[in-house]
């Protein structure tokens, strides 16, 4: 299949992934906010836990939540599940199209771990499944009675996964896999716990039995985990566009800070929706600000000096060796029909024109060449940076 059709397949899968992902995230945000806004009122129907009055689009809505379930279910009960299922399936399809099919470019970096594409794919699938199994075991241990301790353990699991990925995959592949790792946990929470528990409650009602409230409590716990993981996973999925994140030598630390900042922001929004007194969650503001400040500091580019000793001929020799097989008017790299981002390095003026991008992608990080396929050395990166700084 030509690169043109692969690009279209990638684009359509990404578009679909974005659409269903918005639906899933929107439902998660809405139902958690709704749950926090429920209030007990006079004359509620039997079994109702709380109600909420809402206005949107010119109409008023009155929503009720039952403590376990109503005595009878209507025939038009709406299930929220396909948004989660399709988000994970389309995301995994993108993983196959972008990373598995082009493992040597996007997933493998010989300087990190030299392996075959098959070995890389096996490691990817095994760690995604293993992450869910460990997470699920944690949630069904005695930690379920200690939500804060459980949250810390889940955070440690994610940071551990980030450390592992940065030691087996390329920088881009590692950060993307952290997002896939968390996204798999979130989707499997829906597929393996939340929906099956809801089906058990429905089956009990149909059989005329009293549903077990434990099913609802477990489903709510997993749903809340998904809600808090949403902001970090979104940034992980966008990280490939920002080499100052993926190219950091301590990528696991960057992931840890992203989890802390994202979780703090999500907690601030949730407690605001719950109308809690501000002093009870005011700590989230300094935590998010300080965490973000540390992130900016850690990812700031190192200052370099230039003596102007690298000639035009030397820098073009480096570019010809490592860059122009892709970034040429007519690329020679297999599977690439046109220069990425329409950038062609036709000579020194083109390098100067795209200086910020080259500095970010090939000097201050090792994002380019992809997977360091051509074996670009640190000395060559320094020479390239010296020449660019001199111009």
Automatic annotation (TrEMBL):
Q: Which keywords label this protein?
A: Membrane, Transmembrane, Transmembrane helix
Transmembrane ranges?
15-36, 82-100, 120-136, 148-168, 174-195, 227-245, 251-269, 281-300
Q: Origin, by domain of life?
A: Bacteria
Query: Which residues belong to any copy of the Urate oxidase N-terminal domain?
Result: 4-292
Q: Which Pfam families does the record cross-reference, listed alphabetically?
A: Urate_ox_N (PF06181)
What is the protein name given in its UniProt record?
Uncharacterized membrane protein
Say which species the protein is native to.
Pseudoxanthobacter soli DSM 19599
């Amino acid at each position: 299949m030509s690169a043109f059709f692969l690009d279209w397949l990638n684009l359509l899968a990404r578009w679909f992934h974005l659409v269903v992902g918005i639906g899933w995230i929107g439902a998660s945000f809405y139902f958690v906010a709704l749950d926090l806004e429920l209030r007990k009122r006079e004359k509620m129907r039997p079994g109702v836990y709380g109600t909420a009055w809402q206005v949107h689009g010119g109409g008023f809505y009155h929503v009720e939540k039952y403590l376990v379930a109503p005595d009878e279910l209507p025939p038009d009960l709406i299930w929220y599940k396909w948004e989660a299922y399709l988000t994970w399936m389309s995301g995994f399809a993108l993983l196959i199209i972008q990373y598995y099919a082009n493992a040597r470019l996007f997933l493998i970096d010989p300087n990190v771990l030299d392996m075959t594409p098959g070995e890389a794919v096996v490691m990817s699938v095994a760690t995604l499944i293993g992450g869910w199994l460990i997470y699920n075991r944690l949630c069904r241990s005695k930690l379920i009675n200690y939500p804060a301790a459980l949250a810390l353990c889940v955070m440690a699991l994610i940071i551990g996964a980030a450390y592992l990925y940065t030691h087996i995959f390329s920088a881009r592949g590692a950060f993307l896999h952290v997002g896939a790792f968390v996204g798999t946990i979130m989707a499997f929470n829906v597929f393996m716990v939340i929906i099956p528990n809801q089906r058990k409650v429905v089956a009990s009602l149909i059989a005329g039995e009293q549903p077990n409230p434990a099913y609802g409590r477990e489903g709510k716990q997993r749903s809340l985990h998904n809600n808090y993981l949403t902001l970090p996973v979104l940034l992980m999925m966008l990280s490939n566009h920002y080499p100052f994140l993926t190219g950091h030598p301590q990528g696991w630390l960057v992931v840890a800070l992203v989890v802390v900042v994202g979780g703090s922001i999500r907690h601030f929004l949730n407690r605001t929706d719950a109308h809690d007194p501000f002093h009870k969650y005011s700590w989230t503001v300094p935590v998010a600000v300080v965490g973000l400040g540390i992130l900016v500091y850690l990812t700031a580019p190192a200052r370099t000096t230039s003596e102007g000793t690298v000639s035009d001929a030397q820098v073009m020799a480096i570019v010809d060796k490592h860059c122009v097989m892709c970034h040429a008017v007519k690329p020679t790299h297999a599977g690439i029909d046109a220069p990425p981002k329409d950038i062609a390095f036709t000579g020194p003026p083109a390098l100067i024109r795209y200086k910020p991008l080259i500095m970010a992608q090939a000097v201050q990080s090792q994002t380019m060449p992809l997977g360091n396929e051509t074996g670009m050395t640190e000395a060559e990166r320094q020479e390239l940076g010296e020449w660019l700084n001199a111009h």
